[in-house]
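User: Sequence recovery, please. Input:
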């Protein structure tokens, strides 16, 4: 269990180093206590990582979604979800990385 916990801290540290911004959410879009990190990847298109409050690798979600603005993340539902992944193990992270690399080509 400790290794899973440490991996989630590495993910959070990595997000902060890759210029993701922690979103303070007050709406009902995400579970109370969830840590939400977002980065704009195109105009009004955001890559989000949602880490639920118990910080367990089984409770990390990644999504690419369209919001009308950065400030609406967490307050309003996204206008469109273009990609969603529930990250359950390291293979899921690997597949997500490959998806991002393919989308830039």
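Assistant: Recovered sequence (105 residues):
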């Amino acid at each position: 269990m400790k290794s899973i916990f440490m991996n989630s801290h590495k993910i959070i540290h990595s997000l902060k180093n890759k210029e993701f911004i922690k979103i303070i959410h007050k709406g009902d879009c995400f579970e109370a206590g969830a840590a939400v990190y977002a980065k704009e990847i195109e105009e009004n298109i955001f890559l989000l990582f949602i880490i639920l409050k118990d910080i367990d690798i089984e409770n990390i979600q990644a999504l690419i979604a369209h919001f009308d603005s950065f400030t609406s993340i967490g307050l309003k539902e996204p206008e469109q979800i273009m990609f969603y992944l529930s990250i359950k193990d390291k293979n899921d992270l690997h597949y997500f990385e490959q998806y991002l690399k393919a989308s830039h080509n």
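Helices lie at 2-17, 90-103.
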